Amino acid sequence: xxxxxxxxxxxxxxxxxxxxxxxxxxxxxxxxxxxxxxxxxxxxxxxxxxxxxxxxxxxxxxxxxxxxxxxxxxxxxxxxxxxxxxxxxxxxxxxxxxxxxxxxxxxxxxxxxxxxxxxxxxxxxxxxxxxxxxx
Length: 135
Fold this sequence. Notes:
Blueprint: E1 5-9, H1 11-18, H2 24-34, E2 38-43, H3 44-57, H4 59-74, E3 78-81, H5 85-92, H6 100-111, E4 116-118, H7 123-126, E5 131-133
Parallel strand pairs: 1-2, 1-4, 2-3, 4-5
């Protein structure tokens, strides 16, 4: 059996997945995760960005995020990845960066040896050389 494809999700992709009707690209991703075709890697920094935004949006938004977070933690096809020494070591080798949280997300891709990132931020492609999967 071939290894499962790994993809990384940034905060924008995660935010869109929180909607009752996410874009079709993300609906397809969701189904591939459920079916076990893809392993989704969610950097903790992506979750914290959504948490920060939802705190402003009120308790209903926060509760929905809490419920999703619990599901993500239990899913065999989702990895919630923490900022760690492997990522920090990769960052030490970079001479330039344009945004700290995006650099952490890009280095998470490198950590898992994937170029596939779900995002609308073209800098992941242009600056970090990642394969942008957008909507």
